[in-house]
Amino acid sequence: MPKAEVKARPASTMLLLRQEPSEFEVFMMVRHDQIDFASGALVFPGGSVDASDHELVGRPKLFDGGGITDPVRLGLRVAAIRETFEESGILLARPAGSRALVAAAQASDIETAHRAALCEGKIKFSDVLASTGLVLALDLLVPFAHWITPVGLPKRFDTHFFLAIAPPDQVGAHDGQESVDSIWVSPSAALAGAQSGRFKLLFPTTRNLIKLGRQARVSDALEAARNETVVTVLPQILTVEGRRKLKIPADAGYDGEVFDMTA
Predict the structure, then answer these.
(1) pLDDT 10s digits, 228-246
(2) 2 located within any domain
(3) Number of domains in the chain
(4) Which of 15, 25, 86, 163 is the most buried (most CB within 10 A)?
(5) How far apart are CA 261 and CA 263, in angstroms?
């Protein structure tokens, strides 16, 4: 009897960007080699949407949705910011009533007081926001990509990727548990590191770094993302001349349709 298809879990991933004089960089982390998914890989912060994210959407005073009202879309953005805070300590939020992002010093204090407990499930993100008077800046997230893990794999995610400018002076750091290192790196340097063997990249990460790296500046990357339609990518696993390949939609913006699984 064939096994039932594994349902893809909704998930969010954040590409935090910062501008440097000659190039722009994205925040990435190295996953622990004992983690059961993407072990040892260089990844963007992110993870599954959970019940607490949907619960927070029911408390509109805790976020600025930028006019978005759909609870599913809001939940994906909440998850992106929550996972980014849990995994990096970077907090994309504003003091209630302000348009300025939270100061780095206050964000650091909140991280020290609450990040570990949040990661351990001892407190809720909504309670952290309510107690600190902050509002999530969901309006600053720009949809960038949408990838679904191929059918037939044992662990599947339905992942939405978002771009955002990193809050000023919030540097971020890995948690030392799920991730063992972190780095601000240009897309080209991350790709070169994969070629040299310094980094391990998953296929979607590679393709999204290539796509991101077409732009020269953070402002260009955000403008391009705002002007493009996100095409859902559900790769098909093929065997061509004895080699396993992945086929993705040609109009998804990744300069091709059929790739080696390691590309």
Answers:
(1) 999 999 999 898 877 889 9
(2) no
(3) 1
(4) 15
(5) 6
- CATH for 79: 3.90.79.10
Distance between CA atoms of 135 and 94, rounded to whole angstroms? Answer: 5
Is 170 exposed, middle or buried (CB count within 10 Å of its CB: 0-12, 13-18, 19+)?
buried
CA distance 165 to 22: 17
Asked if 31 contacts 38 with a C-beta cutoff of 8 angstroms, the reply is: yes
* Residue whose entry in the numeric block shows the structure tokens 């091709």: 256
Q: Is the pTM of this model over 0.90?
A: yes
Q: Which residues pair with 160 in a beta bridge?
A: 12, 146
Enumerate residues 6+ apart whose C-beta is below 8 A from 245: 237, 238, 239, 258, 259, 260, 261
- Neighbour-count burial of 53, counting CB atoms closer than 10 A to its CB (0-12 exposed, 13-18 middle, 19+ buried): buried
Model confidence over 16-29: pLDDT tens digits?
999 999 999 999 99
Whether residue 49 contacts residue 125, with contact meaning beta carbons closer than 8 Å, is answered with no
**What's the distance, CA 144 to chain centroid?**
10
| Length of the chain as a residue count | 263
Vertex 81 angle, CA 78 and 87, to 5°? 130
> Is position 263 within any domain?
no
Alpha helices (H) in the chain, listed in sequence order: 51-57, 71-88, 104-119, 125-132, 187-196, 203-212, 218-227
Name every residue whose Cβ is closer than 8 Å to that of residue 236 and which is 6 or more positions away in sequence.
150, 246, 247, 248
Residue 95 in any domain: the answer is yes
Q: What single DSSP character describes residue 254?
A: S
At residue 170, the pLDDT reads: 93
Q: Which range of residues forms the domain containing residue 14?
A: 9-226
